[in-house]
Amino acid sequence: xxxxxxxxxxxxxxxTDDLSRMLNQVLDGAPRPAALGPVRVHSVATxxxxxxxxxxxxxxxxxxxxxPGERELASILDVSRATVREAIxxxxxxxIVEIKRGRTGGAYVRTSWTEATASAVRRTLLPRWPELEQxxxxxxxxxxxxxxxAALRRTxxxxxxxxxxxxxxxxxxxLGEEQAADAAFHAAVLASTGNPKIVELSRDMLTRVxxxxxxxxxGEDDPEDYQRALIEHRxxxxxxxxxxxxxxxxxxxxxxxxxxxxxxxxxxxxxGRPSG
Length: 276
What we know:
There is one protein chain. The protein has two domains: 44-115, Orthogonal Bundle (Arc Repressor Mutant, subunit A), CATH 1.10.10.10; 124-270, Four Helix Bundle (Hemerythrin (Met), subunit A). 63% of the residues lie in helices and 3% in strands. The chain is built from twelve helices and two strands, in the order ααααββαααααααα. The longest helix is centred in the middle third of the chain and has 25 residues, at 129-153. The protein is globular. The relative contact order is 0.16. One of its GO terms (molecular function) is DNA-binding transcription factor activity. Residues 42-112 form the HTH gntR-type domain. This is GntR family transcriptional regulator.
């Protein structure tokens, strides 16, 4: 169920080796590398700008939302603040962000897609795509394990937190509200495992598939995707509430293909391929 297209049939399955390596890093308390490695190219500012444009295109950061500050972005991408400043200037020049001054100032997303976006998405995703396909697969397996543990360990307080998030998702009227409620639901499922190392592993996987940004890629406003996610959230909750570990795990594995499907569609758009 977690297998995704794009991985060569003779490739070594990443499950055992990659999961063991990540578990060892978490258990040893070793510093986690930035997802897909730090930026190391001839034009660092170009790479940072491309990665930021891709993050906006895939819905890590939505129109109207403020990007993380210079210091935080420099830490996320392992570059200097001057490089981040130059990259943000490039996003401003092509109309993706606007700079606001004052106490609530910063770089705010104006639009998710401009004429400059397609080439930035191609430059960012194409070289990384084989690894991303493996990470999508591995993430499904990890989230299946999370849901199974949640079904066996959840408390009434955990279930209550999940219900609050479900209600928030059902009431959401904007993409930002959907994204926030989605994050709250999965955070409640994670918390119900009762194991901080599992939480850390799940968040590490999220960061890796999100190009280093610790935010779930959310795509564009699509009523069909919203309805699918709403139904799947409810089914995952029901399985966790019932203590059905295998059902919860299978549902979670299928649910997390939403992210890979969206990113695959985004790359197709950047390459000029029709969606669907």
